[in-house]
Design brief:
Blueprint: E1 10-11, H1 13-21, E2 25-29, H2 33-38, E3 45-46, E4 65-69, H3 75-85, E5 92-95, H4 98-104
Parallel strand pairs: 1-5, 2-3, 2-4, 4-5
Helix pairs in contact: 1-4
């Protein structure tokens, strides 16, 4: 089991929603494929935690933030910790409360 390093910030979903609308974030959904297919944030990449490997992460353009999220904000912590421990060199951010927080902030989901 991986434990999240203290250096990985947890940011509120309303802030991440604003970043997403402004094209400032690359969202990575670490839920399983079936969960992602049932509903997800438009434009989010799916890298399931069960198959997580930093080589599967999308390229993060300069000036954009890598944001991990899941359903409730727990699995993304494991993925973020694994990415950091496996040598991902860029900034990693976790979305607080996952999709629950996203929807509470007014974010939409697509199928």
């Amino acid at each position: 089991m991986y434990s999240a390093p203290a250096l990985i910030p947890v940011v509120s979903a309303d802030v991440i929603l604003e970043w997403h609308r402004n094209g400032e974030a690359v969202l990575v959904d670490v839920r399983e494929v079936e969960e992602y297919q049932s509903r997800h944030i438009d434009g989010a990449f799916n890298v399931p935690l069960s198959q997580f490997d930093i080589s599967k992460l999308p390229t993060i353009p300069e000036g954009k933030r890598l944001v991990f999220h899941c359903q409730a904000g727990v699995r993304c912590g494991t993925a973020a910790a694994k990415a950091a421990q496996d040598g991902y060199g860029g900034e990693i951010i976790r979305m607080q409360d996952g999709l629950f927080g996203w929807m509470a902030a007014g974010g939409m989901l697509v199928r």
